[in-house]
């Protein structure tokens, strides 16, 4: 053996071990990620050099993991660029160790130690936490350089000597400590490679078997990727998810580097939407399944990969939150997604409409949470109207604003088939279909953005067009009351339930004797309160208006009975009219339905017995 040079790293690093030991207790595995990504970096560097320089040893690049169970040694070997003696001193003794010292400093100052533990990259140094002893045997690709052996047992003291090493590259041997025997298992190692290094663009062999997929599709030139490649990649990443709707390939060089593929999944049930489907990579190395700092929450329903080489993704999460680059990246992604939606809308509206069901939730959520996104997609927000056709808000507005006054009518699925809708339709009016809980929030938001529009639920108030303002109020009686006045009085004295207000109008359609109107404000409140249950909802309808149609023949006959022949019968008919109005508004509680059924049966029995 040639002359050995010994040294000590620095005094500070000595207290680092207990800390890092503790850290690795939770994320011990990541030393594999660090060493293999270093090996991959070494190969990438050599690949670049190969374009301009000649070197011996071929270009059959690979990384090999092997182990010796008896000696408890795990070996990670690459045929990359290698290191000269000076480079070992510089990169291992200084840089790698300064990273570790840095970690210790952070750790000591950090308020939340748990956060630092597990989110700080330690690079090469992390191997010491599973090893009693580590050796590096390395030979630079430069022909004239000799091989170097670097050894360290403590992690703070090292020895360097030259050795005979023919093969270019670096071989790192870890003499595993008694607690780390699990890394002498082929399956364990394969699993870890799959998890962290699956997309590293170099073959990785574990005990002679290929262990990674390579082919990080996101790094390829988008114009060169075939549609089926995107499809295959999606099903590789997310098996059993079916096909995606469409995808966006992100490829940015400036002002930051970012590559990735975002897929719009088919959401089969609501739970899917909460799953975190975006995998974060740093230079092809998997970092995390949690992209919440990088991408806005509404986009977390998307699936795919994002690779940001310049961002230290393995550092603490709070650090990420404060990095100005993160905001820029997030804005870029939002813009790309919005652009894609507008493009699709313009280029192929039919297809866009077909996908709407699957993407609407996330578009709406995005519009509510992000101003920029709102502005970028507001013109592609579509609704189904009461005719069953898709339209944008503006299209609805342009078509109906004259007729509607300033109103934008809306209804949910059940209300679409209601008496209220029949009344609107009879006057040639249209409503927009709201189909999810998020729509209530969205409508509130749209109202503040389009101050000229007044959104009104179809059962909140009757449209002016439905009311016959010029109707004849009917015969005036001895008390100077019109028929309309008498109808109002009749219902007021008959329907005396608390919270119910009685009004009369002459409706253009005389088939409907009465309707119940729900205050818009209360309605919105109830819909927005996601905790509400059915009974609460019914209670909310306790305050409402009963609007009696003075031109209904049924109402008129009831009044005649009430004021003459049979007062009691008149009252019973009024009650039935009210019951029917409540029923068509689907606003009866269980108790009310049961009362109603009893009352009506009794009423029918009475009629039969009197005939
Ligand atoms: P980083 O990878 O972030 O630079 P590391 O602590 O992981 O920090 O590694 C420190 C340095 O050691 C690397 O930058 C590289 O120059 C050198 N190095 C580590 N592993 C290898 C290897 N397998 N081949 C060549 N150089 C290596
Ligand atoms: Mg590294």
Automatic annotation (TrEMBL):
Source taxon at top rank: Bacteria
Ligand binding (ATP): 34, 38, 78, 83, 98-99, 170, 317
A Pfam family that the UniProt record links to this protein: HATPase_c_3
GO molecular function, one term: ATP binding
Keywords: ATP-binding, Chaperone, Cytoplasm, Nucleotide-binding
InterPro entries registered for this protein in UniProt: HATPase_C_sf (IPR036890), HSP90_C (IPR037196), Hsp90_fam (IPR001404), Hsp90_N (IPR020575), Ribosomal_Su5_D2-typ_SF (IPR020568)
The family this protein is said to belong to: Belongs to the heat shock protein 90 family.
Protein name: Chaperone protein HtpG
Organism: Leptospira ilyithenensis
């Amino acid at each position: 053996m040639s002359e050995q040079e010994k040294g000590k790293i620095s005094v500070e690093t000595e207290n680092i071990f207990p800390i890092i030991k503790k850290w690795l207790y939770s994320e011990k595995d990541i030393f594999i990620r660090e060493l293999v990504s270093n090996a991959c970096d070494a190969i990438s560097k050599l690949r670049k050099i190969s374009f301009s320089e000649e070197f011996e040893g071929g270009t059959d690049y690979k990384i090999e993991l092997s182990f010796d169970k008896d000696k408890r040694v795990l070996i990670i070997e690459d045929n990359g660029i290698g290191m000269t003696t000076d480079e070992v001193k510089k990169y291992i003794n200084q840089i790698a160790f300064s990273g570790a010292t840095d970690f210790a400093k952070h750790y000591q100052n950090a308020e939340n130690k748990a956060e630092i533990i597990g989110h700080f990259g330690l690079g090469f140094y992390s191997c010491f936490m599973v090893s009693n002893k580590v050796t590096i045997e390395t030979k630079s690709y430069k022909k004239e350089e000799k091989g170097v052996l670097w050894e360290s047992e403590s992690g703070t003291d090292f020895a360097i000597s030259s050795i005979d090493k023919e093969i270019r590259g670096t071989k790192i041997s870890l003499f595993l400590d008694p607690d780390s025997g699990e890394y002498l298992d082929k399956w364990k190692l394969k699993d870890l490679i799959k998890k962290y290094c699956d997309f590293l663009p170099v073959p990785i062999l574990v005990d002679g078997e290929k262990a990674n997929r390579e082919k990080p599709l996101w790094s390829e030139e988008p114009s060169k990727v075939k549609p089926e490649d995107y499809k295959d990649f999606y099903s590789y990443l997310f098996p059993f998810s079916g096909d995606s709707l469409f995808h966006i390939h992100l490829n940015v060089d400036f002002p930051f580097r970012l590559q990735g593929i975002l897929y719009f999944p088919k959401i089969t049930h609501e739970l899917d939407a909460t799953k975190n489907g975006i995998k974060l990579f740093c230079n092809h190395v998997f970092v995390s399944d949690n992209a919440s700092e990088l991408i806005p929450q509404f986009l977390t329903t998307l699936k795919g990969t994002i690779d940001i080489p310049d961002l230290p993704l393995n550092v603490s999460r709070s650090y990420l939150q404060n990095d100005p680059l993160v905001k820029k990246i997030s804005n870029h992604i939002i813009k790309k997604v919005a652009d894609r939606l507008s493009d699709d809308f313009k280029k192929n509206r039919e297809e866009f409409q077909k996908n709407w069901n699957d993407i609407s939730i996330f578009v709406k959520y995005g519009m509510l949470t992000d101003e920029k996104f709102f502005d970028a997609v507001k013109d592609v927000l579509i609704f189904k109207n009461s005719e069953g056709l898709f339209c944008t808000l503006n299209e609805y507005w342009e078509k109906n604003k004259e007729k509607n006054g300033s109103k934008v009518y809306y209804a949910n699925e059940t209300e679409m088939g209601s008496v209220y809708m029949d009344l609107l339709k009879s006057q040639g009016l249209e409503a927009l279909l709201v189909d999810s809980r998020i729509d209530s929030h969205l409508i509130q938001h749209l109202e503040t953005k389009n101050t000229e529009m007044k959104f009104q639920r179809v059962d909140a108030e009757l449209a002016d067009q439905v009311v016959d303002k010029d109707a004849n109020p009917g015969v005036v009686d001895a008390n100077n009351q019109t028929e309309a006045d008498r109808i109002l009085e009749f219902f007021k004295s008959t329907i005396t339930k608390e919270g119910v207000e009685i009004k009369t109008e002459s409706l253009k359609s005389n088939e409907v004797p009465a309707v119940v109107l729900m205050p818009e404000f209360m309605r919105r409140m109830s819909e927005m309160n996601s905790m509400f249950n059915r009974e609460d909802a019914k209670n909310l309808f306790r305050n409402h208006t009963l609007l009696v149609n003075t031109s209904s023949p049924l109402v008129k006959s009831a009044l005649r009975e009430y004021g003459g022949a049979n007062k009691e019968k008149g009252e019973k008919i009024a009650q039935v009219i009210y019951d029917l109005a409540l029923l068509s508004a689907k606003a009866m509680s269980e108790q009310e339905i049961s009362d109603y059924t009893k009352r009506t049966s009794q009423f029918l029995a009475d009629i039969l017995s009197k005939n």
